[in-house]
Amino acid sequence: MFKRYAIYYTPRPGDFAQRGAAWLGWDLQAGIPVEHPAIDDLDIAKLTDRPRKYGLHGTVKAPFELTKASTEAQLAEGIATFCKGQAPVQLDGLALSQIGRFLALVPQGDTTALGSLAATANVVLDAFRAPLSEAELTRKNAPYLTDQQRIYLINYGYPHIMEYFRFHITLTGPLAPDQITPVKTALQHYLGTDIPTPLVIDSLTLCGEDTDGRFHEIERFTLGE
């Protein structure tokens, strides 16, 4: 059993998944480290140190511990049942953008269906999540959170859901101001046309965090089947 579980969008095997895994240095589908590409004089290992352990993904339900009454098999069955009742989501594509101090791929076009999918997943599948400990609640209760986000933190274990949900695929850790442009340019050239256009989210992936803090794909569930 893993320490924590998460429900992610992960790209199906292919060029985009391979390039993203190499950039981050971790292939969560295979559960193995991957050699970084050599791009100019960039220290990609350092640039990607923070997001590496999560692999190439977009969060739908953030990492959580299972309740004592739940098993991994029950969680997987619950996700499978949930996904059967959900339709695939199509977006115009992904664009490389700056979010705060890091770079990420963000969806283009109407994200209403994606937001609805994530919101429903957080509510329906929350029965498998163990409540946050007092220490975790204190640590995650950042001063900048709104009152509503604090309610979500208490009720669902994560504040960035519902109207605060912003789907993104993180590709770097925090960057210095003078790093943003060169790293963004390098990433745009590196990913190139492998970024899917349009982006079809036709499955959700159950992932687990190992004792070293790295996430592994456990099972993929097709939406609508």
Structure description:
The chain is α+β, with helices and mostly antiparallel strands and 225 residues long. It has a single domain, classed as Alpha-Beta Complex (Cyclic Phosphodiesterase, Chain: A), CATH 3.90.1140.10. The protein is built from 7 helices and 11 strands. The protein starts with a strand and ends with a strand.
Q: Order of strands side by side in the largest beta sheet? A: 4-1-10-11
- CATH architecture term: Alpha-Beta Complex
Name of the CATH class: Alpha Beta
- Report the radius of gyration as a whole number of Å: 17 Å
Give the H and E element order: EHEEHEHEEEHHHEHEEE
Q: Could you tell me the strand content as a percent range?
A: 15-25%
Taking the sheet with the most strands, its summary is: 4 strands, antiparallel
| N/C terminus separation | 26 Å
Total domain modules: 1
Instruction: List how many beta strands DSSP finds.
Output: 11
Mean pLDDT: 97
Structural class based on helices, strands and sheet pairing: alpha+beta
What percent of residues adopt helix (DSSP H or I)?
Answer: 25-40%
